[in-house]
Amino acid sequence: MTLPDRSSLSRREYVRLAVAAGGTAALSACLGGEDDTSSVDVPAGTDDSDSLPTRQHAWNDALTADEHGNVQPPAHHVLVALSLQDDVIEDGRVDETAREATETALRSLERAYEWSNEGLVFTLGYTPAYFERFDESLPDSVDLPDPTALTTQEAPEFDEFDAVLHLASDVPEVVLEAEEGLFGEVSELNGVNLETDLTSVFDRLEDRRRTGFVGDGLPAEHTDVSGVPEAVPDDAPFLMGFRSGFRESQATEDRATLESGPFAGGATQHIESMDINLLQWFDQENHFQRVSKLFSREHAVEDLTGEVGEELTASSGLSLERIDATDADAREHNVVGHSQKAARAREDGEPLLLRRDFNTVDGDRPGLHFLSLQREIDEFVRVREAMTGADLDVPMANNGIRHYIFVNRRGNYLVPPRSLRALPPAAPEP
Ligand code: HEM
């Protein structure tokens, strides 16, 4: 992707396009922009690696929260797809120099940037294909099957490379600089010298790189992309026009964490990428229908959400009765809500998935990279089945948002605890 002519674009839009394009040229274009700064300048990280969480996915305490305690995800995201170089694992053994280089490079990120929205949070997750390189199998305590199609309507491609690095920050230049530090020609990150990079361990798969954004007002900035209508509300944090990620609809980090075995402290991760038919969503549907299909019919009748979900506080307003009414809503009102039916998979009232999804206009098409953390991939599959709602007696067009989303890629990952994040063996010593 080449960078567009900046004179016709706002700074925010230009920087977003630069994140999507990636690369050293994109980074310098951003840094040499309006402010004419020559490097990123954000809060520094720490040399004391023991002060950082032992779980890679422990982001929540470090991120900001709104007045209702809902975690505010970083605004800008990059998923860097990685393929291991040939000699890094030979005869089922990891080359120690490569492992040390990986750990040192990741520590450099932590030294450079504060673990926060303004700095950088990240995880490095590994696919089943990576673990198949070893003679031993993963322990029984880890549920990490190969990804498969999960609905009869989809024929997705699968993430069959080795690993994915998820970089997230409120500052777009930070995600770009961190990626370029690890794989490009940048040797200083936020003023801190990079000791080593990942170029001797992994190759970046440019055509599998994914990017995106989440946050109030960001989706509406993309109405220049074909397929993103002017009707996207100005304040909406997601392209479909509503808030998401309410505290009570999210698994806690504890609930998503593996509790036993050598990978205790890790989590599994699923990434489902999809296109969204926003033109139909906004043109053929009105606000009442959109609320019915995303939340529940009762949310629409009682006007519980407001325009973009601003009336909801720490919860998406899904009482037990509303969740239990899913079947009856299908039969009696011919419509069910996406969150209403997904919530049927809660266990003992607790959501199983910690969702960290973000929108995208990768490939100049609107979409969502749905990323969730959970203890077992099977939990994701069960929630996805509840969301699909094949059991419900309702037409496809009114079965939540299924009619508007088109899944094109799936991947399963293990996000090991921080102590095992650098090229973990399949069967670590206890
Ligand atoms: C374009 C795609 C999607 C959009 C716009 C979307 C939007 C939403 C919204 C607005 C909510 C309610 C607010 C909240 O509770 O945070 C929600 C809840 C939820 N969504 Fe999605 N979602 C999408 C895709 C998915 C996918 C692929 C899954 C996979 C299983 C999923 C699973 C869930 C779950 C588990 C909940 C919470 C249910 C509960 O309260 O227990 N969503 N989503």
TrEMBL record:
What is the superkingdom listed in this entry's lineage? Answer: Archaea
Q: Name one Pfam family in it.
A: DUF7405
Q: Where is this region: Disordered?
A: 32-54
Kindly provide the name given to this protein in its UniProt entry. Tat pathway signal protein
